[in-house]
Specification:
With 348 residues, this protein is α/β, with parallel strands linked by helices. The chain is built from 12 helices and 11 strands. It binds nicotinamide-adenine-dinucleotide (NAD) and zinc ion. The site of nicotinamide-adenine-dinucleotide has 28 residues, from helix 1, helix 3, helix 4, strand 8 and helix 5.
């Protein structure tokens, strides 16, 4: 069943439409979607032949703008190439940018939309499961610098987020699993039933996406500029970032998030917040969808050192997002190092 979720923002609202086959109807519904003027469809070189060319052909005045495929291209250099292509396509202040792709395209194209001619209208068409349930919702856009990820960016609310679950048919299975980690994370934060639905063999993508998006929407509506409870979305992420770095990106982000969710559940249990049943359930659902629950032979000392560089660990005071129960998240500071090390050893 198609869904329409309205997201309230500090200065208005925008719809998220979740509908199988929606991409094929964009041409016929261009006016409804506010896409009658000139449009820059920003995508990458993998997605241009899969979906970009058809999307452009369906719109009255659309121009295909591309960047290379990969996180390593979420850069200032790509921004400058996008701006040049936007100028060449004669996009002006009344134009719309459509980001067609995963989180890399969404973040980069979004930042281009936020800054080109001081900002043009922006539509997100996410094509990875991660982008559908996470990065396309909430308005954060930006790029990486050589010094670190997501160091430059903006809050840019879209006019529309259009999610067509049918495009997941071409998504590589590993990317799908990575998106599942974030989807399950949203279930753990605020919709435990999503965990039951996601492990069913005939799980309906559209329904899973709708519920996971709703969790993110509820949180970003309460905290649009990431001042407080948006931090709940970082469940598992303190561990995950360290695991990604110490494994030299051998574990992809979503895989590291899965292991990080196990670590968060175990740390919650160790601190007598959550019970053993939470740990078991977290491990069971992740395993059922093919995600890892152990990180292998990574050194706790090294992981701890990387965690200590987290901006939110002010003055060496640790800070973890933990679970008292599914649907009940708490931020805990100054967790003893011994407890963290015990958990890190348990997930090796
Ligand atoms: N803005 C936010 O709030 C936010 C939140 C989470 C993550 N992010 C960012 O998102 C990025 C990760 O996004 P991602 O996981 O979507 O990775 P990605 O954008 O790199 O996409 C993964 C791969 O899948 C390919 N692909 C995408 N859709 C496809 C499809 N339908 N069929 C076939 N191939 C397809 C892409 O070309 C790419 O090779 C990171 O840069 C991260 O920082 C942003
Ligand atoms: Zn994440």
């Amino acid at each position: 069943m198609a869904a329409h979720i309205d997201v309230k923002t500090p200065d208005g609202s925008y719809p998220i439409i979740i509908e199988r086959g929606a991409l094929a109807t964009v041409g016929a519904r261009a006016a409804e979607f506010g896409l009658m003027g000139s449009v820059g469809v920003i995508t990458n070189e993998t997605l241009a032949p899969l979906y970009g060319e058809v999307l452009c052909a369906a719109l009255p005045d659309a121009h295909l703008i591309t960047m290379p495929d990969g996180e390593q291209y979420k850069t200032l250099h790509s921004m400058s190439s996008l701006y040049s292509q936007m100028i060449a396509a004669k996009l002006d202040r009344s134009s719309t940018v459509i980001a067609l792709g995963g989180g890399v395209v969404g973040d980069t194209a979004g930042f281009a939309a936020a800054s080109y001619m001081r900002g043009v209208d922006f539509v997100q068409v996410p094509t990875t499961l991660l982008a559908m349930v996470d990065s396309s919702v909430g308005g954060k856009v930006g790029i990486d610098l050589p010094e670190g990820k997501n160091l430059v960016g903006a809050f840019k609310q879209p006019q529309l987020v259009l999610i067509d679950p049918d495009v997941l048919a071409t998504l590589p299975p590993r990317e799908r699993r990575c998106g599942m980690a974030e989807l399950l994370k949203h279930g753990m934060i605020a919709d435990p039933e999503l965990l039951d639905l996601a492990v069913q063999p005939d799980a309906d993508d559209e329904a899973l996406i709708r519920r996971a998006v709703q969790v993110k929407v509820d949180i970003v509506e309460q905290d649009p500029f990431e001042k407080n409870i948006r931090a709940h979305l970082n469940l598992g992420h303190t561990f995950a970032h360290a695991i990604e770095i110490v494994s030299d990106f051998g574990w992809q982000h979503g895989e590291a998030v899965a292991i990080g969710l196990v670590a968060a559940a175990r740390l919650s249990q160790r601190l007598r917040m959550g019970g053993q049943e939470i740990v078991e359930r977290v491990e069971a659902v992740l395993t059922q969808v093919g995600l890892p629950t152990r990180m292998g032979d990574l050194a706790p000392e090294h992981l701890w050192a990387v965690m200590g560089t987290d901006k939110k660990w002010q003055g060496g005071h640790s800070r973890f997002v933990l679970l008292r129960a599914f649907g009940q998240v708490e931020i805990v500071r100054d967790v003893p190092k011994d407890d963290v090390f015990a958990v890190l050893r348990a997930i090796q």
